[in-house]
Amino acid sequence: MTDPIVKTTTCPLDCPDSCALEVTVGAAGVERIDGSRDHPLTAGFICGKVRQFGKRLNHRDRLLHPLRRVGEKGAGEFQRVTWDDAVEEITDRFSKIRAEWGSEAILPYNYGGSNGLLTDGFLDDLYFARLGASRLAKTLCAAPTTTVAVGMYGKMPGVAFEDYAHAKCIIVWGANPKTSNIHLVPFLKRAKELGAFIAVVDPVRNLSAKEADLHLAVRPGTDLPVALALIKLLHDADKLDQAFIDQHTRNVDPLLRAASEWPVLRAAAEAGVSESDIRKLADVYAASTPAVVRCGWGLERNRNGGQAVAAVLALPALTGKFGVRGGGYTLSNSGAAQFDSSKLFDISGWNSRTINMTQLGAALNGACDPPIKGLFVYNCNPAITAPDQATVLRGLRRDDLFTVVHEQVMTDTAVYADIVLPATTFLEHSDLRVSYGNYSLGGIRPVVDPRGEALSNPEVFARLGDAMGFTDAAFGWDADTMFREVAGAVTLNSVAVDHRPLAEGRFEYYRYPEKTPVQFESVFPRTPDGIVDLCPPQLGERPYAHHQIGGNGYPLQFISPASSKLISSTFGEFNLDDLRVTVHPVDAESRNIATGDDVRVHNDLGEVVCAVSVSDSVRVGVVSMPKGAWLRSSRNGLTASALCPAHVNEVGGGACYNDAWVEVERIG
Ligand code: SF4
Q1: Residue 605 phi/psi, 5° resolution?
Q2: Gap from CA of 44 to ligand 1 centroid (Å)
Q3: Which of 312-316, 492-496, 585-589, 620-624 has the lowest mean pLDDT?
Q4: Going from the N-terminus, what domains does the chain have, and what CATH number goes with each?
Q5: Distance, CA 18 to ligand 1 centroid (Å)?
């Protein structure tokens, strides 16, 4: 018997930390998954979710062979077919759809189930471009934040997590590091030990009173008034850095005009927080150097989200908080690495219509001309994650819709497929991970053989491209060539990468003069002229305008944040099988609700029946249900997105999950 060996690789799941992993593999397969001690940010620990990845690898719902539907849509009745049969059927059906309805009647639907460069936006894009399929606007997350970050700063790399330990003031705004950015937490703790002031702006108390000095429990959708009130307070107190504004920014006037309309009293009333807390935050932030804002993705999930992100990101520019280690802001750091797929193939002519993924329900139910007749889902589980769940499920049930799902396990979306294709997990294939949190590029290599007949995403699209008769050389590359070619199209802070250590599952650090970048010292705005635009055109015709929030007759605001059990909907096959809604004690008492009761959470879009937890972790007037739970986790087979509207944010077209309002009633 051979001894277990430890293999290095990288976690590609939708999380900013992109951990370097050490996977212990023995005769029976994966025995342990740990964080690498070599990686300064991973520092030897990982989340409990990925520690259990072996459960997904070997789960009874793991897809091992291609399947063809034999029962009713959604009944989950399939028969095994060969890969050749599956590829032939997909090719035949897509060809017929193109001939009868046009190529745009085919829609690829994918998101962040796996964020590797080979698994997302590589041969898949080439295949759908050559088909002339509809394009997809990826808006379920990060569309407003990305749009704003590009418009204001050109996606300037942000403050590294390890540099938070230097900060004297840290504002964690719309983010929950203990759930979805756990490697920031040690640096928050270190900063606190060194005397930093830590504030959290979020409807949920994500950090305890011990961990944070101030919690502004804003009502969802009111981050913009609070940020503008902070700007007005700083302006009125003459605490803006006029020299920095003059030298490095443009369009300060429209921002200050918008801020002038939000005296602190008005903002406090709109956000449901105390005036003195907003004043305190303004005072501490102004007086602290370095000061950093960790801007998350929670504040973008509503109609006001894009404008709110812009006002928050304006704070360090207005106050000149850059130029010092630990000072500035962090949003996504993905812009520090560039992947230029045009070095590999040319898809610049792919100009078909674009469909917003947030509005999949409408798109599948008659909103498009030509209608969607072919749907190819991969790296995604829209039955759970797309808003207006009932409408999405109705669309997936359509008999005249040909649906292909490439997945690792039998998800709530896969049961609606006509053809199911088994996908490898990141422990079974090669890939490259550009982190959107830390400053390293991670190599992913297979640490175990693929289970069953599972194939990776580029292997599947290579077969499909070949079957369709597409002649691009990339469809014929073997796995090593693909990896080498993709690595060759990546630069880290404009420097080429060496693919060899990456192919062994190691990571490469970005090369800044020092290990991590300092904003306005070693990294600068990547706008065309290097100037920060405080009111970029991406904010639309009414920059910094606030939509009043209101419930259309429903009294409680409904949010669906990430949980510590799931990454989006990944791991729902074994985690979070008992869905709960969290209600504040005041709201629970007035409804005669106690922890453990079954409740009906409902609005005009739908209802979810589940158990309740009563807790003051959410603010009064807000109820919270974790996103990503699978349909079987609730009593009535619907989950959080059944209550979320499908309208989109005017900045970036982002999903507005937190614009949902509901009532909660005890059952029985
Ligand atoms: S999900 Fe995040 S914290 Fe967990 S292992 Fe992956 S990168 Fe690390």
Answers
A1: -85, -35
A2: 12
A3: 492-496
A4: 67-134+352-428+450-491 (3.40.50.740), 144-334+522-539 (3.40.228.10), 556-666 (2.40.40.20)
A5: 6
Count of other CB atoms within 10 angstroms of residue 511: 12
Residue 377 Cα to ligand 1 midpoint, Å, equals: 24
Q: What's the whole-number mean pLDDT along residues 239-243?
A: 98
Look at residue 404 in the predicted model and tell me its pLDDT: 98
Residue in the structure block whose two tokens are 């294939």: 429
Q: Is the pLDDT of residue 660 over 80?
A: yes
Tell me the CA–centroid distance for residue 91 and ligand 1, in Å: 36
Supply the DSSP symbol for 643: G
Distances (CA, A) of 279 to 106, 220, 273, 314: 53, 20, 11, 18
Which pLDDT does position 363 carry in this prediction? 98
**Residue 20 forms beta bridges with which residues?**
10
Could you report the per-residue pLDDT of 525-549, keeping only the tens digit for each? Answer: 999 999 999 999 999 999 999 998 8
Going from the Cα of 20 to the center of ligand 1, the distance in angstroms, rounded, reads 9
C-alpha dihedral (47, 50, 52, 57), degrees to nearest 10: 180
Burial 392-409 (b: 16+ CB within 10 A, else e): bbebbebeebbbbbbbbb
Do the beta carbons of residue 538 and residue 147 sit within 8 Å? yes
Residues 576-604 have pLDDT tens digits of: 999 999 999 999 999 999 999 999 999 99
Using CA atoms in the order 25, 30, 31, 35, what is the torsion angle rounded to 10 degrees? 80
Question: Smallest Cα–Cα separation from 666: which of 606, 596, 605?
Answer: 596
Tell me how far the alpha carbon of residue 113 lies from the centroid of ligand 1, in angstroms. 13
The pLDDT value recorded for residue 220 is: 97
Percentage of the chain lying above the pLDDT 70 cut: 100
Q: In this structure, which amino acid lies at residue 17?
A: D
First to last CA, the chain: 59
Distance of CA 327 to the CA centre of its chain: 25
Cα–ligand 1 centroid distance for 47 (angstroms): 6
Residues 578, 347: Cα–Cα separation, whole Å: 44
Which of 8, 9, 15, 34 to mutate to test ligand 1, by most ligand atoms within 8 A of the CB atom? 15
Three-state DSSP at 492 gives strand
Q: At 115, is the pLDDT very low, low, confident or very high (cuts 50, 70, 90)? A: confident
Mean pLDDT of the chain: 96
Distance, in Å, from the CA atom of 79 to the CA atom of 402, rounded to the nearest integer, reads 16
Q: Ligand 1: which residues within 6 Å by Cβ?
A: 11, 13, 15, 17-19, 46-47, 49-50, 182, 567
Alpha helices in 154-274 (DSSP H): 177-180, 185-193, 223-236, 242-248, 252-260, 264-271
Q: Are 173 and 215 within 8 A, CB to CB?
A: no
Q: What is the rounded CA–CA span in Å between residue 26 and residue 4?
A: 4
Pocket residue to mutate for ligand 1, from 41, 49, 185, 565, most atoms within 8 A of Cβ: 49
Lowest mean pLDDT among 228-242, 297-311, 399-413, 492-506: 492-506
**Ligand 1 atom index nearest CA of 21:** 5
The two counts, helices (H) then strands (E), for the chain are: 20, 30
Q: How far apart are CA 518 and CA 656, in angstroms?
A: 33
From the alpha carbon of 14, which atom of ligand 1 is closest? 1
| Closest C-alpha residue for ligand 1 atom 8 | 19
Q: What is the pLDDT of residue 1?
A: 60
pLDDT of residue 100: 98
